[in-house]
Amino acid sequence: MWPMNIAEKPIAGIKGRRISTGDGVHMIANHYRKGVRLDTHMHREAQLVYAARGTMQVTTPKGRWLVPPDRAVWVPARLEHAIDVLADIEMRTLYFDLAWLDREVRSASLDAEFVVRVSPLLHQAILALFDGRNDPGRTGLLVRLAMLELHQAENSATFIPLPHEPRCRRAADIVLADPTGSHEIETLAREVGTSARTLSRLFSSETQLSFKSWCQRARIAAAIEKLSVDANVSVKQLASDLGYASVPAFSHAFRQVTGKTPTEFAEMK
């Protein structure tokens, strides 16, 4: 549940290495250790948040977004959100004044939050913005290039939609509290006081995923978190802990969600 009053956090008060274009775009570089939580807040600016290294989880009223190193998250202005650092991150954030967006951007897709797969070009553009060259013309071109790549970027599946209907949300919270468990919809339905048929319908309407697909998404999110925070975990043990019959079955499910095998993901950290 979100607090009744969400604090608006001025970017002027954010610590970190700061760069400003003087034209409505502000950039801040930060390092956060594993376990840090940036509690629920909002900004008057829109922002593109990228972890050049490490993994974070961004939570909005819509759901939880897992953001490994090859993803970035777009957060519209005044959208309440919280960030949990799952593995030490080098965060690079671009903040956009609304006047700048109105003048430079014409895409309605930026009105809602989403996670994008970061292309090599977008990755290099963001890093170049923080390389200390301080050339206004170059910076302006790099910002526009990043926004162009953002429009073209592929939406990510590393998202767990959170239902709002009370019974469905209680069932979702039970699964998220133990995503490695074997959760039968009949048992969950009894726990939350409804029928399996109703709960199945609620998951479909509230999350646009079947109950089975939603649970798989939650399991893969748990796997991403484990791989991010435990360098010694084996894929075989992780597959077993998550209830998969074999490593190939786990790897297939993991690739469906992330586009990478568990081994490839672990090597990115």
TrEMBL record:
Top-level taxonomic group: Bacteria
GO molecular function per UniProt: DNA-binding transcription factor activity; sequence-specific DNA binding
CDD domains for this protein: cupin_NimR-like_N
InterPro entries according to UniProt: AraC-bd (IPR003313), Homeodomain-like_sf (IPR009057), HTH_AraC (IPR018060), HTH_AraC-typ_CS (IPR018062), RmlC-like_jellyroll (IPR014710), RmlC_Cupin_sf (IPR011051)
Keyword DNA-binding: yes
Keywords from the named record: DNA-binding, Repressor, Transcription, Transcription regulation
Positions of the HTH araC/xylS-type domain: 169-268
UniProt keyword DNA-binding, yes or no: yes
Pfam families in the record: AraC_binding (PF02311), HTH_18 (PF12833)
Name listed for the protein in its UniProt record: Helix-turn-helix transcriptional regulator
UniProt feature coiled coil, ranges: none
